[in-house]
Amino acid sequence: MQALRRYWASHRHPVLLFPAGRSPEERRGAATFMDRGGVQKSFKAIVKDVAIHQQIRVHSLRHCYGKLSTEAGVGLRAIQQELGHECPKTTALYTQLSAPTRDDTDKRLNGLMARLRLLWGD
Question: pLDDT tens string for the chain (122 positions)?
Fold first, then answer.
């Protein structure tokens, strides 16, 4: 994550992480984002720079975003909209159930059941 922050700090574009342009000055004022090949080259350089030895691609960022959004309690429908998916099944692939999410879900469901018991007088 620090490498991505350093990359952004090199151009400080107000909206785009990967703006078009060869120099920081060109990227700072770019109206469009970098093409796919440029993003892939930049990401590959960042991965090498931080010595990540796992196979990781730009697309991995979408999976991380989905997983972290789920862990933060963002609803599946909202994540679906953010990722631009038409089908919730596609979004489900990006939002893997992690241990923190599973534990939080257990706590929420147990709390809900406790409230229902109070309402029903059990």
Answer: 677 788 888 899 988 888 999 888 999 999 999 998 988 888 888 888 888 888 888 888 888 888 888 888 888 899 999 999 999 888 888 777 777 777 787 888 888 888 888 888 76
CA 20/CA 91 separation, integer angstroms: 28
Residue (of 93, 96, 87, 92) closest to 67 by Cα position: 96
Start-to-end CA distance of the chain, whole Å, equals 49
Let me know the angle formed at the C-alpha of 44 by 41 and 48, rounded to the nearest 5 degrees. Answer: 140
Residues counted in the chain:
122
Taking a C-beta distance cutoff of 8 angstroms, is the pair 38, 54 a contact? no
